[in-house]
Design brief:
The protein has five helices and six strands, in the order ααβββαβααββ. With 142 residues, the chain is of the alpha/beta class. A six-stranded mixed beta sheet has the order 1-2-3-4-5-6, with helices on both faces. A hairpin with a 4-residue loop joins β5 and β6.
Length: 142
Amino acid sequence: MELAVFKELTEEITSECFFMTESQQEEKVIQLIDLHHFVECFDSKINIVNYIQHPINIVEQNGEKKGILFYDLKHSSFPDCNASEEFKRRHRLSELWFVFVEEETITHTTHHTDFIIENSLEIFYDSIFLFQFFQSNIQRLK
């Protein structure tokens, strides 16, 4: 992402999310960075529709609206899967994706697959990915 685009988008977050705390705005900026880099790595033709209003980002791929939720095992609180399902219905999304974001290189995905099983993520999410941010690597886990 170019610096000018990043600056413009962070200013949009600051003005649109004035009701959020500074910490919440920082989380939203991180979500935005994750989203843009994921799209660059996965499919640059994906169009970003909405990222401001909810932790689930709405994108359009091949004419279909999809939701993408980014999750960091180290820092994130567990998302409400029922709320995600409701979000999918309300916004008429064809798919909902769950994306683990990791800064470090991951060689074994056991921790991630255990988390998927323990939380029944495969019931609520159509696709589950592991996104190694700095390596620009995306691995489908489901």
